[in-house]
Amino acid sequence: MSADTRILLESLGVTGGHTGGTLKVHSPNTGELIGEVVETPVDQAKAHIDTAHEAFLKWRLIPAPKRGELVRLFGEELRAHKDALGKLVSIEAGKVTSEGLGEVQEMIDICDFAVGLSRQLYGLTIATERAEHRMMETWHPLGVVGIISAFNFPVAVWAWNACLALVCGDAIVWKPSEKTPLTALATHALFDRAVAAYKAAGHAMPEGLSALIIGGKEVGEALVEHEKVPLVSATGSTAMGRAVGPKLAARFARALLELGGNNAAIIAPSADLDLALRGVAFAAMGTAGQRCTTLRRLFVHESLYDTFVPRLKQAYASVKVGHPLEEGTLIGPLIDAHAFALFERALDEARSVGGKVTGGARVDVNGKDSYYVRPAIVEMDAHAGPVLRETFAPILYIMKYGNIEDAIAMQNAVGAGLSSSIFTNDIREAELFVSAAGSDCGIANVNIGPSGAEIGGAFGGEKETGGGRESGSDSWKAYMRRATNTINYGRSLPLAQGVTFDV
Ligand code: NAD
Fold first, then answer.
1. Coil, strand or helix: which one is 36?
2. Looking at the structure, do residues 240 and 268 belong to the same domain, yes or no?
3. Which of 4, 38, 291, 462 has fewest C-beta within 10 Å?
4. Does residue 451 fall inside a structural domain?
């Protein structure tokens, strides 16, 4: 481990677990070994879940605004350590500086959101047909929430789930990606500091309310299979969701699935091309194409194809691929050799079905153990072959279209349904795109790319993206159980539907 990484971990409060273990962690930036993390045996993972359940039984009784205070204190820790945690994200996940910091900012934002939410967990009062009765709905804490996260948002996704779950009165157990356990250790150490500050301020707090369990899918399965975990929020590939979803359904647990995307944008004849160019370039190349919301398919109207595509190619040629912490770098590395193999395979397949590839070469930034590539544009005649699946790398497939209905139909003709956008100044097209007959995705944007998310909105997608919603709007409801309560404050007992039942 480099001295730099060790100092960062120490500054974030990590006192153990990052050395002497069996899980080898390599920085994608250099290929260097940066940690040998101690894995959690499955039995111990189960014990953590049992403890979290006991903690839940107490935590659920603490008033929600008081629970919010813990999340507020966690937000303070994040603010104080934003630079260090952001840098660690860059080292372990290969994100450029602004994206590493941006990820921590998302954590801070969800803390703020959750603190406000802790005073707004409200239900409805509903008109009842019976005299001297009141009918209402109440929302109650659910239990232990299992959080399984992916490598590409190693800490923000946990925070999206954890902060909401905590104010909702739940306990949490986190299984981070086996590719990014160091950022998880650091995040949890910051959370422990918030817990210490909470207790020091005199608040009651059960032990083991939040646990971190580290390892591969067997450790994740402990969460999926444990009867005391009523909700698993799992972020990752559609293949993972296919494995996890049925197991949760079999024991009637809730699944909040945030899976793969195959996101598209449409460039319509009236589009502001300067704005579209920036939107497309960032959405397709940012994070080296390793965002669930990365733009992967572009439908360009035939009337402007020959104007727009050459400009886009120029933008592609000008971006700096390099070490993520170096100034001016816009594109960092792929996560590992496997990701690089999938990138090459998709480009080969595209060529074999007639795709014209620009870019896509491997770039030697730090030797053979790191995998940097020039982002690729692939011009396709048909919406077919590798275009139809998510390859988690910077490949943008471009196709021409003639009329808007065809473009929308193509954009919807894939398994995933996460994010989408249209660039247009034609109000009819814009409204059609966001209407019932438009994009079938969980996110549908106008004049802004499909990538990224803002805390206030519900985040997630349809079809093979899994249907889950996290973060803002009323996503909190997934972390609570709803009860309908009818209260009779009269002296008679009118039965529903006017039934007579005299005894
Ligand atoms: P992955 O599916 O390989 O792993 C994700 C997590 O699931 C890891 O923690 C892994 O250990 C765990 N896991 C895998 N199989 C499991 C099983 N059978 N039981 C329990 N746990 C299991 O994904 P990845 O390579 O880390 O991340 C990239 C993928 O995640 C892409 O497909 C991307 O689109 C998707 N993603 C989606 C969102 C979203 O919000 N929709 C966000 C980020 C990433």
1. strand
2. no
3. 4
4. no
What's 353's domain CATH number? 3.40.309.10
Claim to verify: residue 410 and residue 339 sit in the same structural domain: yes
- The residue contributing the CA closest to ligand 1 atom 8 is 177
Q: Does one domain contain both 240 and 274?
A: no
Report yes or no for ipTM above 0.95: yes
Residues 276 and 154 in one domain: no
The verdict on the CB of residue 23 being under 6 Å from ligand 1 is no
Decide if 78 is inside a domain: yes
Three-state DSSP state, 422 = strand
Point out the residues that are catalytic: 258
Token code pair at residue 324: 């993520």
Domain assignment of residue 493, yes or no: no
Residue of 110, 292, 459 with the most ligand 1 atoms within 8 Å of its CB, for mutation: 292
Helix (H, G, I), strand (E, B) or coil at 324: coil
**What tokens were used for 453?**
């998310």
Domain of residue 69, CATH code: 3.40.605.10
Blockwise average pLDDT, block size 10, the chain, 503 residues: 87 94 98 97 98 98 98 98 98 98 98 98 95 97 98 98 98 98 98 98 97 98 98 98 98 98 98 98 98 98 98 98 97 98 98 97 97 98 96 98 98 98 98 98 98 93 98 98 98 86 83
CB atoms under 10 Å from CB of 107, counted, come to 27
- If you measure from the C-alpha of residue 427 to the centroid of ligand 1, how many angstroms do you get, rounded to a whole number? 37
Co-location of 206 and 270 in the same domain: no
Joined together, the tokens standing for residue 278 give: 């920036």
pTM beyond cutoff 0.95 = yes
Range of the domain at 438: 263-446
Q: In angstroms, rounded to a whole number, what is the distance separating the alpha carbons of residues 58 and 49? A: 15
Tokens of 239: 């293949």
Same domain, yes or no, for 241 and 347? no
Assess whether the C-beta atom of 216 lies below 6 angstroms from ligand 1. Answer: yes
| CA distances for 502 relative to 194, 388, 488, 495, 497, angstroms | 59, 64, 18, 11, 15
In a domain, 476, yes or no: yes
The strand pairing partners of 140, in sequence order, are 481
Pairwise CA distance, residues 391 & 296, whole Å: 8
Ligand 1 pocket test, pick from 160, 232, 237 with the greatest ligand atom count within 8 Å of Cβ, gives 237
Q: Which of 206, 211, 121, 126 is nearest to 162 (CA)?
A: 211
Q: Is the CB of 170 under 6 A from ligand 1?
A: no
Number of domains in the chain: 2
